[in-house]
Amino acid sequence: RNIIINGDFQVAQRSSGPVTGGGYTTADRWIFPDTETSQQVTNDRVSNVDKMLKVTATSGGYGILYQKVENVKTCSGQYATLSFWAKTSDANALRLELQQNFGSGGSSTVTIINDNDYFTVPNDGWNFYTHTFYCPSVLGKTIGSGNFLSVLFGPQSGQPSSNIVYYSEVQLELGKVATPFEHRSYGEELALCQRYFQDHYNPG
């Protein structure tokens, strides 16, 4: 049911952290678009979810999370609901950005929503955030290689460099209702993560 991979941050093949940098650094499938410090830590929200992600902003980043969902056709022409738990004492709002990226040689990117102040943070404890959206149809679009559905959320720009956000139980599912988080075994989540790799080479 959960389209997001590693939504409970239990798989961290590169490192459990803390790691400071951008790109893929700690929890598998999660990208840090800017330089941030990420760390897989013990979950203190619920006892049946073992891990959560701690993200500390730096002067080069605000603590944003980003995942590329394979295949821009995902959710095409349907309603979908994003939900997650977050805790922060520093941010007063969280941004949300959802886009359809048609890949190399494909149609122009379609922005579903891009709002710097989408979620209001009511207090410094754990809060549940959810958003239901209509995903435009990709009929008539040119779909290139490396296409994806972009899911990005986290503190709005302009936050202090010391801002800390804890994330737990991220879920994206079809439909207009946020259902309880889908618990998958570590083995199943690891297998989903291992469908992907990142290639590195030395141009010298």
- The tally of beta strands, per DSSP, is 10
Global structural class: mainly beta
Order the strands across the largest sheet as they lie in space. 1-2-3-10-5-8
How much of the residues is beta strand, in percent?
35-45%
Question: Would you mind describing this structure in some detail?
Answer:
The chain has one helix at about 185-195; strands spanning about 20-25, 30-40, 50-55, 65-70, 80-90, 95-100, 110-120, 125-135, 150-155, 165-175. The protein is mainly β and about 200 residues long. A hairpin with an 8-residue loop joins β2 (about 30-40) and β3 (about 50-55). About 5% of the residues lie in helices and about 45% in strands. The protein is globular and about 45 Å long. The strands form two sheets. A six-stranded antiparallel beta sheet has the order 1-2-3-10-5-8, with no helix packed on it.
What's the SSE blueprint?
Blueprint: E1 19-23, E2 32-42, E3 51-57, E4 65-70, E5 78-88, E6 93-101, E7 110-120, E8 126-135, E9 148-155, E10 164-174, H1 186-193
Antiparallel strand pairs: 1-2, 2-3, 3-10, 4-9, 5-8, 5-10, 6-7, 6-9
Features:
4-stranded antiparallel sheet, mainly beta, single chain, 204 residues, 10 strands
Task: Summarize the structure in short.
The protein is mainly β and 204 residues long. Helix content is 4%, strand content 44%.
